[in-house]
Structure formats: structure tokens, C-alpha cells
Amino acid sequence: MKSYLLYPVLFLVMSAGKVFSQEKDIQITQTKKFTVYHANDGGNIVLNLKATYYSKGDTFKVFKDDQPVFGLSSPLNLREFRDSITNLLNDIASTNEFFSEYSLNEIFLWLYLFRVDDKEPNIGFLNLGTFTNHDENNSSARVFLLDSMKNIINHQRAVFSNNKMAVVSMLNQYKSKIGDSNKESSDKAQINNYLKRFHDDPFPQLDSAALAAIGNRNKKASPENDLLKVNAVAYEAARKNLSGANEALRAMNIFPIEKVSIQFERGYIERIQAWVRNKTGGTDIYENTYAIGFSSINNLKAFQRTKLFMRKSSKIGFNSCIFLSDVIGNYDNLLDLYTRDYSPADTVINFAYPEEMPLISLKKERNIRLFDGKIFTDLGGIDQESPNGLVQVEICRRFNLNTYRWQAGKRQDVGAFSYLNVYGALSKIEDKKKVLPLHNQNTVINNTLVSPSYTTNLDLRRYENFSMGVDLNALLYDYPDMKFTAYLDFGIRYGHVVLGDTIRNIAGGIVAPGKDTSFSGHTVTLMLPKVSIEIFQERRVGLVMSYSYNHTYAFTNNQFKQIMSYKKSDLNNIVTERAARNSHQLELLLRVETSEKNNGQIFFRSRFFWQQGDANTFFSQIQVGYAYNIIYRNN
């Protein structure tokens, strides 16, 4: 008996499982008031719209006065939306008006935001342009012409599309009235051919005479035949108007932008490609020749002066260009507290189609990179007699300043005051050779020690246990085709070192060593200049080569003297030599990424220092370590 009771229980459990496993239909409803402006006479129509999004079918339904007026499905398509909203507006106004693209896009953005994932906060919305021309100079008149022609062509497309849908609807009604006899089957087949043509061909012609003949043979369809005659006239007029508008665009060298790809990286548009239709019906690719700043309002204003060039050889006459402002029509950035940087998270957008979806949601960087950290060892520190640090830690942070670039030649660009790099390092964590011993010639005159304690300029650097500094970029030269960027920086650097000396007692003209003592030494180094070349062969491997001319000032409290060389300097003179403060530094940095997320790198760094005035006074550092990002996750 108990086994029989088990079946109903299992049935109930399975039924409950099916119910809970079914996809839940989440509905989002919003109401909003819009003012839609006419594009030609300044009039307007006020719309009170309600829209509901249904997650189960991924669809939208739009209501006016609580009556459904049209529906849309995801992904949203701007052209379908424009056709539907224009039809609604013309029904309301009982006219055939041009409507402002900005007003229509405002309603489209409202619907688009229904499905934006709040888990990934937005920083703004890109509005992609749909038309461009090949004028070498941009001007307000050119922008006005493009906007005006865009309004005209979009209006003609909407009118044509609505007339096309009306003809298709009437053909289907027409077909339903025709019988299935052998006599009538050829008429039905002909209408099916028209329906197929209207489905496959974007601008099909309609043979009104042939349809009228079908109507004369099928008296049941005479009402539909009469309506179809009216629709056919309106359709042909709309088709000719659209064809004329397209011819006018071609005559003015205005062509549609078919698709766009954009790469955002470190506050710049590193790459942007736009596929533009040409006179032959094919497409040409236009692209940037250098990184374009995308972090400040001035960067956004510069879009109207920034050119994208055709990816064809200028040496055989392909010199065509378009303006970035045609491709990125606008950027609706969202304001935030405590920031003046409007750049999005690093991202790549491939093959966005402006005619179908002109809006692109850009996200904030969720993982905010606070600092770049390095932990490494100096291979020279393995030697117990070497002061090179065996375990060292370094952090740095680069702040973008001026992200605007100027074009230099056809394929290069230059920048000025592009960034500020702040860094700090602990160079001696282990307890080994932490004190720099000072030397003294122990020269006594008249029972007085006249020789100073001294150490070389490079030993002050070699024995450092802590340092921090700032590099300010002065000039930047970028040559993307050769995959390198050169930097001219000026820097200032503070260093701390522990110095050891002996208290010297003079007795009978002889120096008697006393108690050992130690104290802090401080240095300030001016890097005037620092020149670097960074090679961008590929993302996973990078190479940086740099040279700096260092001017180091030691703050001694008159306790010791900074010298050029143990061999060549006057060790009894208390005056610091002119060359003692100057040295040279060469550096080679090779990095290799260890993950696709770009949050970890293995690096190799080699440094070589030599003294101005005595190249035989030198030392080197060979460092191997791991670089990582110190990240704050913004919730």
C-alpha cells in the first residue's frame, strides 16, 4: 500500500519541479512624456508613452493612452523603431512630417535602457553616426548639411517602409479572397511571387496593371483591389522619392557608414575602423593613424577636427578621409563625483551597425587599478659582498593629464604633458649591507682633521633603501606603423640611505678611531632629461629602453662629501667637484604577460649606471620579478 502512495508523491514533486524550472517572465513598465519636434518647421507633438518589457519573450510593447500601438523585439533595431514611431506620429498629426532624429533617438534610448544591466554601471552612451562625406575640411555648414540630409533620407525610408508594409498587408488580404480553382491558382501564384519579391528585394517595383487584371478576374477581391490601387500609387511615389534622395546623397558624395569597430584602452581610442559605402557599391575602411584621447571634454570637442584615413595607398591617389565626429555622432557621458575622467573601461566593440543599433553602452571600470606593483630580486644581491637588494618592492601609478594628440605627417602623432608617473620603492628589505660606510683620508694638520668623510655619487644610489619620485612627460612621439612610442620626460627623485662613520679622535697628530656611528643621508636627483622608447610588438610582450641624465644633490649636514671617483677625486678637498653630481643611467625592461586579464606580468630589468667624468666608476643591476596590479573593486 505504501508503494502505491509513492507514485502521487513523485508526481507532485515532478510537477512542482516543472513549475519552478519554467522561466519566470519579468515585466518592466515605465511611463514617460516626450516632445517630438518637426525637423522642418519647429512644430512638435507631445507623446505620453507607456512601454513594457517582457523578459520571457525578450520583447517590448509600446502603449499610447493605454492602447498598444506597436511592438518590438530584441535586439532593438533603430530602422524598425523609426518606421513604427513615424507611422504613429503621422497618424496622430494626420500629416506626413519630418521628425527630429534627436527626438526619435531620445525615445529609442528610453527603450534601450530597459535592458541595461545595472550590475555593470554605465559611464555613457556612444551615438554612432550613419552618414559621412569626403570633404577635406569640416565646418558648421558641412555638419548642418549632413544632419539635414540624414533627416530627409530617414524620413523617406520611414515613409517607404510604411507604404511597403501596407502593400504587403493588402496583398495578403487580396490572396485570401482568391479561390483555389485551376483558373485562379495562377493568380494566387503571381501574388505569392510579389510577396516573395517584397520580402527579398529592399526596393521592389509593383506592376499595378497586372494586379488590376487579377482583380478584374476575381470579383470577390474587388474591394481589396480598389484599396490596392490606392496603396500602389502611394508606394510607387514613396519608392521614387527614396530613390531620388539616395541619388542626391551620391551626387553630394554622402555615403552611409555600414559598420564600426572601436578599441578603448587607457583613456584612448587606440583603434577605430569605419566601413563606408563608396560610389561603386563596395566599402572602404577608414581608420585612425594614432591613439585618440577619450577622457576629457576637450578630447570630445576635438572629434570634429580628427580625421580617419582610407586604408589604401596614398601613393597611388587614395587620399580620402572622413571626420571622427561623423562616426561618433555624440557621447552622452554620465556625471560622477570626484572625477574629471570620462573614459570607459578598457573594451573592444566589433562590428556595430549604426543603422540597426546606433547606441553603445560604455561601462565604468569595475576594477580600479590603484597602483602597479612589482616584487623582485636583484641577482647581484646573491653575492654577500654586494649591497644590491635581494628582495625589493616597487609601486607606481600613472595619471593621464593631456590625452590630446597632434598629427605629425600622415601616420605619426605627438603629444605634450601626456601623463604624470608617481612611484616609490623599498630597495633593501633583508638585513645585508644596509649601511654605506664612509671613507676618510685621515689627514691631520696642526692637530686638526682637515680631510672630509666621503663616498661616491653612485654608492649613494647603490645603497639606497627607500626612494620615491615623479616623472612628468614633456613630449610624446607615436609611430603606430613602426609599433613604437618615444617619450621625453623630466623627473625628480628622492632617495634615503643609511651611512656609517667613525668618530675620530686626534691625539698627538694621530687619528685614533673611536665609536662607530650611523645616520641618515638624503638625496634629490633631477632627471634632465629621461628618454624612453617603448616597443608595442604585441600585447603579451613589451620592451622599454630608456636613458636618463641624472643630477644628484646630497643633503649632508656637512657630515660627508659627495665625490666623483675614489681614484680620480681630490679626497682632501672639502669642495664638491662639479662632475660629482652627474651620472648616466641606461635601462632595459622586458615584460611578459601571464594571463589574458592583463593583471600579472613577469619582467626582466637591467640597469647600468656610470659616473660623469669617470666611466670606470659604475655599477649594474639585473632584476627579475613579478609585476601585478593592486586593484580596488568598485561595487
In words, what does this structure look like?
The protein is α+β, with helices and mostly antiparallel strands and 635 residues long. The chain folds into 3 domains: 27-114, no CATH class; 152-251, no CATH class; 367-633. Helix content is 25%, strand content 43%. The strands form 6 sheets. It has a 10-stranded antiparallel β-barrel with strand order 16-17-20-26-27-28-29-31-32-33. Strands 6, 7, 8, 9, 10, 11, 12 and 14 form an 8-stranded antiparallel beta sheet that branches. Helix 2 packs across helix 4, helix 4 (140-177) packs antiparallel against helix 7 (222-251) and helix 6 runs antiparallel to helix 7.
Strand content: 35-45%
Shape: elongated
Which blocks of ≥5 consecutive residues have pLDDT under 50?
none
Give the terminus-to-terminus CA distance. Answer: 57 Å
Helix content: 25-40%
Overall pLDDT score: 84
Radius of gyration from CA coordinates = 37 Å
- Report the structural category: alpha+beta
How many individual domains?
3
| Biggest sheet character | 10 strands, antiparallel, barrel
How many H/I helical runs? 10
Query: What is the β-strand count?
Result: 33
What strand line-up does the widest sheet have?
A: 16-17-20-26-27-28-29-31-32-33
